[in-house]
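Lecture 7 notes: from sequence to structure.
We start with the chain below.
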Amino acid sequence: MKVFIIDDTAITSRLICEYLKQIDGIVPVVFNDPQAGLAACLSDGPDLILVNYMMPNISGLEFIGKIREDLDLADVPILMVTAIEEKTVLQQAFDKGANDFLSKPIDPIELGARVRNMLNLRMRTLQLHYLAHVDSMTETLMRRRFFELADVEFSRGKRYGNLLSIMMLDIDNFKSVNDTYGHAIGDAVLIKIATLCKGILRDVDFIGRLGGEEFAICLPETGLKSAFLVAERMRKSIENVTIRQNEHEIKVTISVGLAQLSKQDSSFSVLLNRADRVLYDAKNTGRNKVVMDVVD
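Predicted structure tokens for the same chain:
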């Protein structure tokens, strides 16, 4: 787990780093420049932050405030490190969003205990986050979480003029799979399809299960033509695979609807509905195809 140490005092930061290196499973990283440390936190998402109270250019309190403004870092535990034991200072730290504090001079036993407690808290938070946001069977995003992330990408695309494409994907004749082979085999098909799709997507793309055999995929910084190539690759990959479960060998196909963010889209739901509409066209004109919603 990544632990970022933000302290302009080189001696103190190196000492903390050496103590933390003795704890298994921890990768400590030191930043003596608070601004560089803040940038690293915002871009790299540590599992724990230790930040000094007294620093130039940006105080520890200001640092914590900026971290807590970022939704992705809202649950990352923060330890305030300070030689000041005034209760008003500690209260300010907690009010800003610190989870705990360490008093200078640093005691290695106290440091280890507090860091372990904070990282245990982090692990539990990540586990709960996973359970709340990820479909346990297909390991794709749940509907609500998919919409939350997609709304962010939609807003970014509208604000900065970024490309954004949405893919709606449905397994053809999936009901007959369940009726013929049973729901256990149907679940195996869903898992295989989701795995194949995730293997084709980039790290910045994300896929959600909207219900039953229907999935949605968000492709940031991607135009319609590029999205079509991705969709075709998925379609062909799924068409050519044989899903073997128990004594059964099953082949399925998918239909896909694609839409690219346009100036006319007032919300992500409008964009998604455009992709859903052309998915309906794909299903009703032969299945096993990709149809694009082209907007002038």
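Points to note: Residues 2-132 form a domain with the Rossmann fold fold (CATH 3.40.50.2300). The longest strand covers residues 164-171.
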